[in-house]
Design brief:
Chain A has 149 residues and is mainly α. Chain A contains five helices and no strands. Chain A starts with 7 loop residues before the first helix and ends in a 34-residue tail after the last helix. By secondary structure, chain B is an alpha+beta fold. Chain B contains ten helices and ten strands. The two termini of chain B are 49 Å apart. The chains are: A mainly alpha (149), B alpha+beta (284). Chains A and B meet through helix 3, helix 4 and helix 5 of A and helix 1, helix 2, strand 7 and strand 9 of B.
């Protein structure tokens, strides 16, 4: 709806050419948002789900059974790995226990030394976490003990 | 007081008797895996399946956000990623109508190809003069192609079993050929004059046979296993350690040593001995 300017200031401005040029629109529509608002809208458009979500997976019965079989097989595999690991740890604990019990009988002095508190012992920083691909130099050879330097 | 007396009696008996087994310390020195474990076929298939499911359920890539419309990079992106077949109402689609949203058929996974930041070797050779420097690009160039190192090393190819760089995905254990000309874990006997802690004994022995340029981490002073060696009348207490850097350099030239995985240990070690210590060794 057309709204005539009532205030004298704007009527004076309306009569000048600058304001007419500013409001002139042809072809491409320009939004009246500021640059910062546009930026935020653009950012939100990347985050929002609108028109970006894929179609829902609708598996038929056969596919559903296939999927469940795969997941069951994976769970079984993982369980077996876990059980093997658990058994190994149990055996290792048992063998430590046996060794210490035997050492107690054989040599009480060595038993005390083996059981002593290891103060100042730290986990080594040089120990590496396995990566998918090796470093360019897979092993560090040039090591010399600190007290020898 | 009573217990101390009892202990001294038993010790006196142990040292006097000729049949009492000798105490010795065996070093279980391992090199931990440098790369992740190899996947077995089932694991590889399962990961591939999950990956495909994940891709199918992924949202559409907001290309307008990363490639501003009208720029050259957007043009390159569009050249690589062609629009899918449009949903033309005049055409019949026997395998279902495409559902296009943001230039993606939302029934399928979206396959994206990003513009390369580097030139392939063939391209570089063809246009050697316009790049200025023919051949491989500078190593510090951020846009260079990332080529991961091979998981199979030279030592694997040469089957060098004394190298620490072999079988990077597995735990390796140090074995040496002992006096009986048999492969075994390095074993060091306790001296008669002075009683030495088991881990010190193992350390001293290791430095004696392998040089001092070994950086290792002793897991614990506590022995992790006892093996009763009835042939040599020895009690072998096992000390677990990891080698971190440095190298095992045999001080005696005639000393033979190998770095072996669990499976290879089975072939090299005495059968009973291996059975006794199998649970100490890592499967990976």
């Amino acid at each position: 709806m057309f709204k005539p300017f009532t205030t004298p200031v704007s009527s004076r401005l309306a009569s000048s050419g600058a304001v007419i040029l500013k409001n002139f629109v042809r072809g491409k529509r320009q939004s009246n948002q500021s640059a910062s608002t546009k930026k935020v809208v653009n950012q939100l458009s990347a985050l929002s789900a609108s028109r970006k979500q894929p179609k829902l997976l609708n598996l038929c019965n056969e596919d559903l059974i296939k999927h469940k079989t795969i997941v069951n097989a994976w769970n079984l595999f993982k369980r077996k790995v876990q059980q093997r690991k658990h058994l190994q740890l149990k055996k290792q604990y048992k063998s430590i226990y046996n060794a210490m019990e035997d050492l107690k009988q054989t040599s009480p002095k060595l038993f005390e030394l083996a059981n002593a508190q290891q103060e100042g012992k730290r986990f080594p920083l040089e120990m590496r976490i396995p990566t998918d691909y090796p470093p360019t130099q897979p092993w560090v050879y040039n090591y010399s003990p600190k007290n020898k330097q | 007081m009573k217990s101390v007396l009892g202990r001294s009696f038993t010790r006196a008996y142990a040292t006097q008797s000729s049949t009492a087994p000798k105490i010795s310390s065996t070093l279980l020195l391992s090199r931990n895996p440098v790369v992740t474990a190899d996947l077995n076929p089932f694991q590889a298939q399962y990961y591939k399946y999950q990956n495909e499911l994940w891709r199918r359920l992924m949202w559409t890539f907001p290309k307008w956000f990363y490639f501003r419309v009208g720029t050259i990079s957007e043009q390159r992106f569009r050249q690589l990623n062609k629009d899918p077949v449009s949903n033309n109402p005049d055409i019949e689609f026997p395998r279902g109508r495409p559902e296009i949203r943001h230039q993606r058929d939302r029934r399928f996974k979206q396959e994206l190809r990003l513009p390369k930041t580097y030139k392939e070797e063939v391209e570089v050779d063809d246009a050697g003069e316009d790049t200025g420097a023919p051949g491989a690009p500078a190593n510090d160039d951020l846009a260079r192609k990332i080529v991961p190192n091979s998981r199979i090393t030279k030592a694997d190819e040469a089957n060098d079993k004394t190298s620490l760089e072999r079988k990077l995905s597995r735990t390796l254990y140090l074995v040496i050929r002992n006096d009986n000309n048999k492969w075994a874990l390095p074993n060091f006997g306790e001296k008669t004059e002075e009683l030495q802690a088991l881990h010190d004994l193992a350390e001293e022995g290791l430095y004696k046979i392998g040089g001092e340029h070994i950086n290792y981490f002793n897991v614990s002073n506590t022995p992790c296993h006892l093996y009763n060696n009835e042939v040599e009348n020895k009690k072998e207490y096992f000390i677990k350690s990891h080698i971190l850097s440095g190298e095992f350099e045999p001080q005696d030239k005639s000393l033979q040593y190998l770095w072996l995985t669990k499976e290879e240990l089975k072939d090299h070690l005495n059968e009973d001995y291996y059975k006794d210590i199998a649970h100490l060794l890592n499967d990976v």
